[in-house]
Write a structure and sequence with these properties.
Elements lengths: L2 H11 L9 H39 L6 H44 L1
């Protein structure tokens, strides 16, 4: 998934959203959401690992003289991009979590 597509997906998902149900159901829904996102992130990272491994194997098998410094820079650049995307996602999730906590607190105060 390209960085631009991920960023636009984050922007479109960060719009104000409400979760129906009781506070417990809302928290469960958010927990499931985070679990799915972590699974997706894990899958993306596995794809990156496979891609890097394939490049290393291809270079090794074809007896190419690959500069490990260049390969390392390429890997580090990809990791930096993924870390930036993950940081953006975490910021969005933390903001949503803060809003949810405030809503739950307001509901609990209203119930008293």
């Amino acid at each position: 998934m390209s960085n631009k597509r991920v960023n636009s997906k984050i922007s479109s998902n960060s719009a104000s959203q409400s979760v129906p149900g009781t506070p417990l159901q809302q928290m469960w829904h958010v927990l499931n959401f985070h679990e799915q996102r972590l699974i997706q992130i894990s899958q993306v990272m596995q794809e990156v690992d496979r891609s890097v491994e394939e490049k290393i194997n291809k270079a090794y098998n074809s007896n190419m003289k690959v500069s490990f410094k260049q390969l390392d820079e390429s890997v580090n650049a990809k990791i930096a991009v993924h870390m930036a995307v993950l940081t953006q996602r975490c910021d969005v999730l933390e903001a949503a979590n803060t809003v949810l906590k405030k809503n739950v607190q307001q509901m609990m105060v209203g119930d008293e």
